[in-house]
Design brief:
2 strands; 319 residues
C-alpha cells in the first residue's frame, strides 16, 4: 500500500507540474485576449483595457497595477513567470496526503473518525491542486477575471487552514481535560460536522456568489489572525496531546508562516522595487511567499493528519 500511495503522489505532482510547464510553453500573449487587465484610457473604450488591445509599452502607472514587484512581460504568454511557476509549491500538501493518509484509501475503514480523516485529506488535495492552477493562471495573465478565480481558491485554501488551526487549538485545550473517549465523541458528534458544514458553506459562496471576493480583505485578515493563534498554541504549548508532530515542528511551521506573510507584505509595498535588476530577478518575494506558505501548510497538514489518525485508530481499537 505504501508503494501505491507513493506512486500516486508522484503521479499527481508529475501530471500537474507537467500541465503548468506545458501551459507556459504553448501560451502566447493572445491567449489572454478579451480579458480585462485594468482600467485605463489606453483602451479604445476609455476606462477599460483588454490585454489583447494593448499596443503601446505600459507606463509606470500601468506597471504599478500589478501588486507584486516582478516586472510584467506584456509580450509573453506568462507575464510574471517567477510568481506564476512558484505556484506549483501548492502541490506539496496534496502530494503528502496521497503518500501518507491511509484513510483516503479505506485501509482503516470508512466510518467514524476514519471518514473524517479521509475527508480532510481529500479537501487538502482538491484545494491545493486548484490553488496551484488558479494562482498560475492569474500570475501568467495578470487579468481581473483570473484574479477573481485565484482569490476564491486562495480564500478557500486559507479557510481550510483556519479549520485545521481550530481543530489543533480545540485539541490542545480540551483533550487533556475531557479525556480520550470524551474528546473523540465531541469531535465525531459536534466538531467535525461543524467544520464540514462551514467548508461546504464556503464552497457554496465561492461557486454561487462574489461574496468571498468582495470581503476578501476582512476575511483574509481574520483568517490569518486565527491561524496565527492556532499555530502559536501548537508552537508554544509545552504539554502536547498524543499524536501530531510535536512542539518543535509547530515552531518551524509558525516561523515559515510568519516569514511568508512578511515577505508578501514587503513585496506588495514595492519598497525593494527600486532597480530593473530587482524587477527582472527570477527570485521574487511573492514566489518565496508561495513556497513558504505551501511548506507551512504541508506541515500543518502533517500535524493534523497525525492527530486525526491517532484519534481514529484509538476509536477503532475501542470499538
Amino acid at each position: 500500500m505504501a508503494t501505491t500511495q507513493a506512486a500516486a503522489a508522484t503521479l499527481l505532482v508529475m501530471v500537474n507540474l507537467g500541465a503548468l510547464l506545458l501551459a507556459g510553453a504553448v501560451l502566447t500573449p493572445h491567449a489572454w485576449d478579451g480579458l480585462t487587465f485594468k482600467d485605463t484610457a489606453l483602451a479604445p473604450h476609455p476606462g477599460r483595457l483588454l490585454v489583447g488591445q494593448l499596443r503601446a509599452p505600459p507606463s509606470a502607472a500601468d506597471r504599478d497595477e500589478y501588486e507584486a514587484c516582478e516586472r510584467v512581460r506584456f509580450r509573453r504568454g506568462v507575464r510574471a513567470p517567477s510568481n506564476a511557476y512558484s505556484s506549483a509549491f501548492y502541490l506539496c500538501a496534496p502530494a503528502f496526503q496521497l503518500a501518507t493518509n491511509v484513510h483516503l484509501w479505506g485501509v482503516q475503514g470508512r466510518g467514524g473518525l476514519s471518514g473524517v480523516a479521509a475527508l480532510f485529506g481529500l479537501m487538502s488535495i482538491v484545494l491545493g491542486v486548484a490553488l496551484a492552477h488558479a494562482s498560475f493562471l492569474y500570475h501568467a495573465s495578470i487579468t481581473v477575471e483570473l484574479n477573481r478565480l485565484d482569490v476564491r481558491f486562495m480564500m478557500l485554501f486559507t479557510l481550510h487552514n483556519t479549520w485545521k488551526c481550530f481543530y489543533m487549538g480545540a485539541r490542545l485545550l480540551l483533550y487533556p481535560r475531557l479525556g480520550t473517549a470524551a474528546w473523540r465523541g465531541l469531535l465525531r458528534t459536534y466538531l467535525a460536522p461543524a467544520l464540514g458544514g462551514a467548508s461546504l458553506g464556503a464552497l457554496a459562496l465561492a461557486a454561487a456568489t462574489d461574496s468571498l471576493h468582495r470581503n476578501y480583505d476582512v476575511l483574509l485578515q481574520s483568517a490569518i489572525a486565527f491561524m496565527f493563534l492556532g499555530s502559536a498554541g501548537w508552537a508554544i504549548t509545552s504539554s502536547q496531546p498524543p499524536g501530531g508532530l510535536g512542539r518543535r515542528a509547530g515552531q518551524l511551521h509558525l516561523a515559515l508562516f510568519l516569514v511568508g506573510i512578511a515577505l508578501k507584505l514587503l513585496d506588495d509595498s514595492k519598497a525593494l522595487c527600486t532597480t530593473d535588476r530587482a524587477r527582472d530577478s527570477p527570485l521574487q518575494l511573492t514566489a518565496a511567499f508561495h513556497a513558504l506558505t505551501a511548506v507551512s501548510s504541508m506541515m500543518s497538514d502533517m500535524h493534523t493528519s497525525a492527530q486525526l489518525s491517532h484519534d481514529a485508530d484509538a476509536a477503532r481499537k475501542r470499538a
